[in-house]
């Protein structure tokens, strides 16, 4: 598997992001696109990646800065379950976050997304109080992980 840093507007990345959005909408009634609109892609601490297997884009993910020391994992997606695509993407994003000086990562997923909750817990993430726009949103569950 090859993991590549790219721009979410890249023509090769757009279809996997759209697939993620459709998947989320069908499963949870929200496509998650609104959390991807206001990103500063020119920020050097913003990282968007795609995962490629046999010349097919099979996943994506991003880290965006929350503040100097905290990054937020966003738009994590693996097209094929059980192939360690998500784990590879998350490991890559965690390493990039460390390189960019982040000491902590946070993320949000839906409380109904049991697969994601189990995945993040297996990767060492712990449930934290909801932060930012997820405060007072019972459908959201937030996670955090120290990188040090």
TrEMBL record:
- Spans through the membrane: none
For this UniProt record, the keywords arranged alphabetically read as follows: Acyltransferase, Transferase
Classification via PROSITE patterns: GNAT (PS51186)
- State the Pfam families in the record: Acetyltransf_1
InterPro entries the UniProt entry points to? Acyl_CoA_acyltransferase, Bact_Acetyltransf, GNAT_dom
| The keyword Transferase is annotated on this UniProt entry | yes
Q: Which residues form the N-acetyltransferase domain?
A: 1-148
PANTHER family the record matches: AMINOALKYLPHOSPHONATE N-ACETYLTRANSFERASE-RELATED, AMINOALKYLPHOSPHONATE N-ACETYLTRANSFERASE-RELATED-RELATED
Q: What's the protein here called? A: GNAT family N-acetyltransferase
Organism of origin is Flavobacterium procerum
